[in-house]
Amino acid sequence: MMRAAGTIVLCGAVLATASPALAEPGPQATLRIVIMVNDRPLKGATLTCDPDGGSHPTPSAACELLRKIDGDSTKLNVVPNPVCTDEYERHTVLVRGKWHDRTVKWAHSYPNSCQMKAAGGAVFTL
């Protein structure tokens, strides 16, 4: 009987220490970001936030910007009045995925890469 009680206590201790690792949630946000130039795909990356990661080159900086606007890409405006040339080479950014419990589907076109990077900062720097 003592042996059985010892086994139960040992099993309980193992489960108690193992369960936090098993219950650890995945990222709270997963976004696929694609940049197109004149309707041709140029670059793409996956961005995960909370924890920050994915194939995005600067996930921490990108996630920090998105956290400030609660993942609402329409509010991105890192440099409000950028000094850019008047060249025209349309850059379109597509963002799809989940931000916490919300579905994200967003697209916007900019006249050139300077305007795009000014608006999206690290989020659009792929």
TrEMBL record:
The question of whether Signal is a record keyword is answered with: yes
Signal sequence, start to end: 1-23
Return the InterPro entries for the record.
Prot_inh_SSI_I16_CS, Subtilisin_inhibitor
Do the record's keywords include Isomerase?
A: no
Q: Which residues cross the membrane?
A: none
Q: Which residues form the Subtilisin inhibitor domain?
A: 41-112
Keyword annotations from UniProtKB, A to Z: Signal
Looking up Pfam families in the UniProt record yields: SSI
Tell me what this protein is called: SSI family serine proteinase inhibitor
Source species, please? Nonomuraea guangzhouensis
